[in-house]
Amino acid sequence: MLKEYLTVAQDALVTQKELYQVKEQRLALALDQYTRLNDAYKDKSSSRTSLFSGSSSSTKYDPDILKAEISTTKVRVRCIFHSLTHSLTHSHSPLLNLFCCILPTFSPQF
């Protein structure tokens, strides 16, 4: 029975590690998107060209739209970061749970 529990606990740890890695990748992508949008906004706001040039790309780089996308991305980064830190601080290892259950009842024979 203990062997089965340890096998299940190991599988759970592998799954937790995979979930953590996926969250790290999502955070890296969101941070990259935030950086790109912020750089585009800085470039566009420092540019002296007209925003209303009549081309379809002018709306893509409209400072108001960029600000809204930056704000949305910033919220996304915060949520992913919170989820990542929450999973680290509030998850218990199955092995730790096992030892917490066994150790209080364990009485060594001297």
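(ticket continues) Second input and output from the same batch:
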Amino acid sequence: MSRRKVHHYEGVLEEIVKAAALNDGVAISSEVPSRVRQVAIDKYGSWAQACKCAGVKCPSVINRKNIAAPMQA
């Protein structure tokens, strides 16, 4: 992924995290690209922390899924 694209995602990262978490995790598996999730995890340390920084509660099922499943390149 180009730096430009990563930077673009970082600009809207909080909104993506918030929308995904508020959608009870549905958006995480279907609409939010894994690379976007990885940018969030790289920036905040974990998906739960990304949700916390976005001001939303992290659905626990998403958190477990991200920890258990390795991210694919």
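Agent notes: Residues 61-69 have pLDDT under 50 and may be disordered. The chain has five helices and no strands. Closing as not reproducible unless the customer responds.
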